[in-house]
Amino acid sequence: MSYNFCNKLFHGCGIAGMRMLDDDSIPLVVTSPPFGSIRDYGGHPFYFKPMARELWRVAMPGGIVCWHVQDQMTEGAESGESFRQCLYFLELGFRLHTTLTVDCGVVGKYRFRYGQPAQYVFVLSKGKPRLFNPIRRIPNASAGKVRAFKGRLRNGTQKFRQERRIKPFRKLGSHWTYPIGVHSHSDPESIEHPAPMPESLAEDLIASWSSENDLVLDPMSGAGTTAKMAFVSNRCYLGFEINREYHDLAVARMEKVAAEAATPKLGRRIESDDLDAA
User: Which residue ranges make up each domain of the chain?
Assistant: First the structure.
């Protein structure tokens, strides 16, 4: 598939950037908005509803938006903003294909509650998802054995018995765990951003809902983690970042990973540009 914009990182507003894109043109979005006002990100405001509407417009039929978010906590209470965002996506027409909970190993010491608010990835689809590549890396203790599985009808009665040979590995569930901070990235430069997405999380989302040479968009690209993991996964990437410091960091990270790439197919030139609308 060909794209009007491919393998570029733009300095500018992601909403304005997406307005350059055609309707129904993007197969996969992997992004993470600000988690409330926990960070100020250089003082740039975040306009959720215009962002969501543009994501709905540019997503292709069957396309996926992976929205990684966490509620801000104030005086021990969660804001609930992540759920309000999810409901607005549903109002626009997205389907909530999967809700992933993400554990980044932060427990915290809180007297009146259990730990920090959960992180979620709302996997939103524009209609039926165009593809799904399940990640299978959990070993099955009964691998190779034949087991019988019973099903139930709607009234609860058992109806059939199916025998299957157990595969060596089973697919991931809906709870994913990743390291954070310096342990979540292969390059130390990433920690110059105040809240980088774990590389393995971006990599797994990209692997699950895209194919090679698909375009992966991040309209709030930050330190460029989505772009980097798309690049090393042999996908095309497109990123918009309104903060100049973070944009330059993302470009530097991409130039580094491109220089380290050993194969010609990864030796693509890193392009950066400014949006006139920024």
Answer: 8-134+172-274, 136-170
d(CA 119, CA 135): 20
Q: How many CA atoms are closer than 13 Å to the CA of 209, on its beta-carbon side?
A: 27
3-state secondary structure of 134: coil
Q: Which of 23, 25, 85 is nearest to 49 (CA)?
A: 85
Q: Which residues pair with 274 in a beta bridge?
A: 11
205: part of which helix (H) or strand (E)? helix 199-208
pLDDT tens across 89-112, in order? 999 999 999 999 998 766 666 777
Span 55-93, pLDDT tens digits: 999 999 999 999 999 998 888 888 999 999 999 999 999
State the pTM of this model.
0.85
Q: Environment class of residue 37 by beta-carbon count within 10 Å: exposed (0-12), middle (13-18) or buried (19+)?
A: exposed
Given a contact cutoff of 8 angstroms between Cβ atoms, the answer to whether 102 and 92 are in contact is no
Q: Do the beta carbons of residue 271 and residue 8 sit within 8 Å? A: yes
Superfamily the domain 8-134+172-274 falls into: Vaccinia Virus protein VP39 (3.40.50.150)
Rounded to whole angstroms, the Cα distance separating 38 from 183 reads 21
Q: For strands 136-139 and 169-171, give the pairing.
A: antiparallel
pLDDT in tens, 149-205: 667 777 767 766 677 777 777 889 999 988 765 545 566 665 655 567 889 999 999
Q: Tell me how many degrees the CA angle 132-205-270 measures, rounded to the nearest 5.
A: 115
Coil, helix or strand at residue 140: coil
